[in-house]
Amino acid sequence: MHVLVIRFQVFVRRAQRVLLPFLLPFFHFYAGHHRRKPLRVKLHHARKTRPCPRHTLLMSDARPYAVTMKTHIGGAALAACIILLTGCSGSTQAASTSPSATPTPTPTPTPTASVGQYASIIAENETAWRDYEDKIVDCALASIGTKPLDYAKRTACRFTVQTVTVTAKTAAREIRQLPKPPAEIDTLVTRTLSALDVIGKNDATTACKDTESDSCDAAETQVNGDIRLLTPVLDAWKPYTH
Which H/E stretch holds residue 51? Predict the structure, then answer.
């Protein structure tokens, strides 16, 4: 708005410099003619005589000319005023209609998931993961046993290994599908994903198609070590899952 006012002032000054040289001669002529006419009338009244025919003729000839010049001068002055007023009106309208500032778009807030959404995924699988860790020693003893009961336990442990790897992979995927976690659990979510990814990458589902194979035994041993890294993370979730 301040810039528009300055531009309008510059426009008015330029218009004055351009129009005044052309209008001043007409104004001087009109002012001089207007001053001379009353003197001539006073002179006639003072003498109380009628002007001579020649003088009357000159005055009668001069009056239409004076009226004509007065009309031209008045028209020129009116035209100058119209030009100045038009420029003023146009500048004022432009100043009033021009936008003051471009509106700043409001940033869209990033959606955030609640703590309960994350905690529910952990709570759903926590019991199974802890049970697996609690039975690591029993499964290890069953893997070297020769009794029929050892064989049954060993087979059950090998199926449990596959279940743990699948649930860890599924839980990690579900966590990543949620919006950004609250700042309160941001670090904890990162730790959880790191522990789950290690277990989820285990190929126990393929290696343990034959539960008595060495590859299945190696996969189980690997999960036994990785599950111990998940336990501290589960402990950190307790304030939110219990």
Answer: none
Decide: 175 and 108 in contact? Cβ < 8 Å.
no
| Rounded-to-integer distance, Cα 102 and Cα 224, Å | 62
pLDDT single digits (tens) 146-203: 899 999 999 999 999 999 999 999 999 999 999 999 999 999 999 999 999 999 999 9
For the segment 118-141, what is each residue's pLDDT rounded down to a tens digit?
999 999 999 999 999 999 999 999
What does the block give as tokens for 140? 């290890």
Task: Give CA–CA dist 162/207, Å, rounded.
Answer: 9
Q: What is the pTM of this model?
A: 0.55
Q: CB-hemisphere CA count at 13 Å for 19?
A: 16
Contact 1, 95 (CB under 8 A): yes
Sketch the domain layout of the chain as residue ranges: 2-97, 115-241
